[in-house]
Amino acid sequence: MKTLVRYLTLSLIRKSGYALLPYLRTRRWPKVAMTVLLGLFLLDRLFPPPLSVPYSTIVTAADSTTLHAFLSRDDKWRMYATLDEITPTLRQTIRQKEDRWFRWHPGINPVAMMRAAGRNLLSGKRTSGASTITMQVVRLLEPRPRTYGSKVIEVLRAFQLEVRLSKDEILQLYLNLVPYGGNIEGIKSASLLFFGKPPQLLSLAEITTLAIIPNRPSSLRLGENNAAVITARNAWLRRFLAAGTFPRQAIDNALLEPLNAHRRPAPNMAPHLSLRLQSEHPNEPVIVSTIQANVQAATERLVRQYVDRIKAQNIRNAAVLVIDNQTGAVEAYVGSAAFGDVVDGGQVDGVRAVRSPGSALKPLLYALAFDQGLITPKARIHDVPTNFGGYEPDNYDRQFNGPVTAEFALANSLNIPAVKLLRDVSTPVFVAKLREAGFRTVQKQADDLGLSMILGGCGVTLEELTRAYTAFPNRGQRRDLAYVRTLSAAALAPESGQARPVRVWSTPTFSPEAAFLVTNTLTQITRPDLPNNFDNSYHLPRIAWKTGTSYGRRDAWSVGYNRHYTIGVWVGNFSGIGVPNLSGANTAAPLLFQLFNAIDYNAPTGWFRPPTGGKLGFRQICPESGDVPEHTCAGRATDYYIMGVSRANRCGHQQQVWTNSAATVSYCAHCRPAGVDSLSRPVARMYPNLAPEVVAWYAASHRPYAAIPPHNPACSRVFGNGGAPLITSLNAGSDYFIDPKSPADLALSCQTANDVQVVYWYLNNGLFRKAKPTETIFFRPTPGVLTVSCADDKGRVSKVRVVVKRG
Q: How far apart are CA 757 and CA 242, in angstroms?
């Protein structure tokens, strides 16, 4: 509009100047007129009206419900009302009361000015004014003393506004600046703070009430002198009836309407998100967020009530993020249980606080392992005590399950299989995947992260974790989160811009097949992270979910999703204090289930189906190993696999061993006797091909297993095709510090194959001791470089080198 007016004005001046040039050479007054017009144009350019108004920032929900409001820079409640919020009734009321000829005059009303001047001259004092709505806007933008000189300036400024703005924009500016006493300005501020509703929902009686307050702000105080307000309101309603402004029925109803106006607190929902959006868009008076008001209200209520119940356990805060899976729009954002709670850190934004994720990253690791072909759901992983170069993780319940399937390990959140899987995937590859998924803290910590990160040895935020989980319900496509739908464009002038939609993108994170396999596992309800105190017979929502508990029980996590929503929950204390009763299963998961039941109960959106495209299929496997079965495999099972990706190893969980008839001695190919009768003839038997760590766990836990008999003692050949002993203590490359005054003994232990009966320990190439494979032995170290060797009875040797130092 502004550009169009400027263009037409300049074009008119230029064209009229060419046409009147001969006339101007012979006449003087046209030159004077043109000079005056040019001067006015230059003055307008040099001294534009001050249209930059410091509005209060208001954050609204997606349906324009006001969530939160902030004071303006000059500490005013001056909320910006859009043109859509100015209803026809409001327009008509204001025009009838303030300026009936507003639509037709050029900014001033000459008739009204002459009438007012005559009355003032006759009375000798100022008895009436002639200010139009445009002139009142000028006065609100630039307050001046009430003098005749100021009136002249107001007239000139009024002309400027009429040229620059449309009538609707001038009326909008008036309604945004009109004072209501104290620090309340604008129709929207008054509407929300006195009536608790937006301007478009005001009744005729309420509109008339707000229309008369600015003329008498000291005597007509809403909430303090409502009787006087009703009297003045009804007087104006009768004037409107006499003027035919509104139908009689509407006036009669308005006259009977009671006045329920009092000072209310400013809207304060979603305070953490509102502060975040205000800092990101500091000059925007209206920020339309993606928040759904009903979802936000229900989430805030449930979080507040839940934390009130668990405060007796010294657990004092929680944070929740609710994401629409289809659009990435954040529909609820709760940073803490109570923003005003200064004792328990209520103003900390738990959605963006960096915390330890516990086991909550495991689904992302398993999805990556599926995509790399390292595992299938029924592939076997050993859940036994394992030393990873000095790092010896333990399970949450301090129990071990032996060989388990990958889906069992994920569903039961076993730690040892997860660490083994991270070792196979490699930490740098997993870190790169998390960096790609938007984990900024992990990116900063990348150089210091090791295998412990999968058990919580890194920092994440609830926002990062929940956003990453959106890849699972979206066929591997992670949603980029959207917090804002549109931004208002009235920071500088009402006509300065257009509402801008915010685009939402999705990023490939995993394959659709890997996402489905993880979802299929996390949907199981026969899991240890199902809350003990939750009524799962009726109230358990149909979701896929994962929990996590950080070291020291400082953070409890639960992230779940269905077709519609992904919801992330964190529960704990912002102070970082651990609580013995805190756990993802029994502390965070119940709140997650309550949220799904409250905002998406019995959602008719269906459930996840296997992806189309032919890449995900079934195949037969050996249930003992999860590999493609051999003829020696006794049983068969079916398992998902990703064609062209998943490994296709032949099953090797058994090995053939030649023994004597009593199975007390085993033979190799070099010493196996020919045998002439049934007693001396060697027998081929099948024995489990157990990994060394499994053998060690069976022996340590006194579990029976089929051990290979000792080798023929008469055989003198060097033999053995299996792996060398795995030294689990000492740790290769480590430094050990001893106290010279009272040196402590160091332990030696190893893990061997199923066919080993005896191992031999060497210290700096000198035989130290003969021992059983499962036996731990001790020695007294001396300072210096130490080489430890372990040889089994098959001639296989492994070595580690350490340094012993004085402490």
A: 112
Place of tokens 């659009």: 327
The closest of 610, 589, 454 to 520, measured between CA atoms, is: 610
One-letter amino acid of 17: G
- pTM attached to this predicted model: 0.84
CA torsion 196-201-203-204 (nearest 10°) is 120
Instruction: Kindly report the average pLDDT of the chain as a whole number.
Output: 86
pLDDT score of 15 more than 70 = no
pLDDT, position 663: 85
Q: What is the pLDDT of residue 481?
A: 94
pLDDT for the residue numbered 630: 87
Q: How far is CA 289 from the centre of its chain?
A: 14
CATH topology of domain 67-256: Penicillin binding protein transpeptidase fold (1.10.3810)
DSSP 100: T
Q: Where are the alpha helices (DSSP H) in 165-282?
A: 167-177, 187-190, 204-212, 226-243, 248-256, 271-280
The pLDDT tens digits of the residues spanning 143-202 come to 888 777 777 888 888 888 888 889 999 999 999 999 998 899 999 999 999 999 999 999
Provide the residue ranges of all domains of the chain, joining segments of one domain with +: 2-46, 67-256, 726-806
From residue 93, give the alpha-carbon distance in Å to each of 186, 210, 246: 15, 10, 9
798: phi then psi, degrees, rounded to nearest 5: -135, 155
Tens digits of residue pLDDT in 65-88:
999 999 999 999 999 999 989 999
Contacts of 278 (CB under 8 A, 6+ apart): 57, 59, 70, 287
Closest to 422 (Cα-Cα) out of 412, 411, 434: 434
User: Mean pLDDT, to the nearest integer, of 449-473?
Assistant: 96
How far, in Å, CA of 365 to CA of 380, rounded?
A: 16
CATH of 726-806, one of 3.40.50.300, 2.60.40.10, 3.40.190.10, 3.40.50.720: 2.60.40.10
The predicted model gives 241-256 an average pLDDT of: 94
Peptide bond into 414 cis (omega under 30): no
Q: Half-sphere exposure of residue 353, counting CA atoms within 13 Å on the CB side?
A: 25
Q: 480 is written with which tokens?
A: 């980029």
pLDDT digits (tens, 9 = 90+) for 757-796: 899 999 998 999 999 988 889 999 988 999 999 998 888 8
DSSP codes joined into one string, 341-410: -TTTTTTS-TTT--B--TTTTHHHHHHHHHHTTS--TT-EEEES---BTTB----TTS---EEEEHHHHH
Tokens 């309550």 correspond to what residue?
A: 594
d(CA 784, CA 722): 33
List, for residues 547-566, the tens digit of each pLDDT value: 999 999 999 999 999 999 99
Token pair belonging to 190: 């008054």
- Write a three-state SS string for 495-506: CCCCCCCCCCCE
Cα(147)–Cα(133) distance, rounded to whole angstroms? 18
Q: Given CA atoms 360, 364, 367, 368 in this order, what sign does their dihedral have?
A: negative
Q: Please give the pLDDT value at position 684.
A: 87
Structure confidence at residue 493 (pLDDT): 37
Q: Are 175 and 185 in contact (CB under 8 A)?
A: no
Q: Which pair of tokens denotes residue 424?
A: 């196979």
The least confident of 107-116, 246-255, 585-594, 597-606 is 107-116
Q: Residue 684 contacts by C-beta under 8 Å, 6 or more apart in sequence?
A: 656, 657, 658
d(CA 429, CA 600): 36
Residue entry with tokens 């920092």? 459
By the 8 A CB rule, do 632 and 652 touch?
A: no
Q: Which amino acid is at 736?
A: Y
Amino acid symbol at 806:
R
User: If residue 529 lies in a helix (H) or strand (E), which one and from where to where?
Assistant: none
For 150, list phi and psi in degrees, rounded to 5: -65, -35
DSSP 8-state class, residue 176 = H
pLDDT at 421 over 90: yes
